[in-house]
């Protein structure tokens, strides 16, 4: 599958198309303890501990849309309850067809970076949003 872009929805409304998305993953803390087997031989037991979901990082060319900035402002002003949202990230192919989808819950913007831009280059000015959340599932 060839990926072209990611779209992000909150409450069924598309809020943007992004050229890069990273962090769709999770990890478990590894808990180790020593024990003995039935013959008295020492063994090391390793089990999964606390589950942690990675932050999702989205990058896109800067637009005149202020949704991300308004969302981040809620957190800056201390309204974390109002800022928490659930949503969906959809990966689209070059024809615009959805080819993969992840749904995440209780997300809030923990970081927002404006563009770094060099006027002497032809590069697109990119803004970056980091979303912290409480879990996700792959739906498609």
Summary keywords:
single chain; 140 residues; mainly beta; Pnp Oxidase, Chain A; eight-stranded antiparallel beta sheet; two-stranded antiparallel ribbon; 10% helix; elongated; structural molecule activity; CHP02241; Phage tail protein; Phage_T4_Gp19
Short synopsis of the structure:
The protein has 140 residues and is mainly β. It has 2 helices and 10 strands, in the order ββββββααββββ. Helices cover 10% and strands 56% of the residues.
Order of helices and strands: EEEEEEHHEEEE
**DSSP helical segment count:** 2
- The counted number of beta strands is 10
Tell me the domain tally. 1
Largest sheet: 8 strands, antiparallel
Q: Fraction of residues in helices?
A: 10-25%
State the distance separating the first and last CA atoms: 13 Å
Task: Show unreliable segments.
Answer: none
CATH homologous superfamily? Answer: Hcp1-like
| Shape designation | elongated
Q: Would you tell me the overall average pLDDT?
A: 90
CATH architecture tag:
Roll
Structural class: mainly beta
**Relative strand content:** over 45%
Q: What is the radius of gyration computed over CA atoms, rounded to a whole number of angstroms?
A: 20 Å
CATH topology value: Pnp Oxidase, Chain A
CATH class: Mainly Beta
């Amino acid at each position: 599958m060839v990926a072209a872009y990611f779209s992000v929805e909150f409450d069924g409304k598309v809020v943007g198309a992004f050229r890069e998305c990273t962090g769709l993953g999770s990890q478990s803390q590894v808990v180790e303890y020593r024990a003995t087997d039935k013959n008295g031989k020492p063994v090391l037991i390793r089990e999964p501990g606390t589950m942690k979901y990675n932050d999702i990082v989205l990058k896109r060319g800067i637009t005149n849309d202020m949704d991300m900035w308004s969302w981040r402002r809620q957190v800056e002003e201390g309204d974390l309850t109002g800022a928490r949202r659930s949503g969906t990230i959809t990966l689209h192919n070059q024809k615009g067809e959805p080819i993969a989808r992840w749904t995440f819950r209780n997300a809030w913007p923990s970081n927002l970076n404006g563009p770094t831009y060099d006027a002497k280059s032809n590069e697109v000015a990119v803004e970056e949003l980091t979303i912290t959340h409480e879990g996700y599932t792959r739906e498609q």
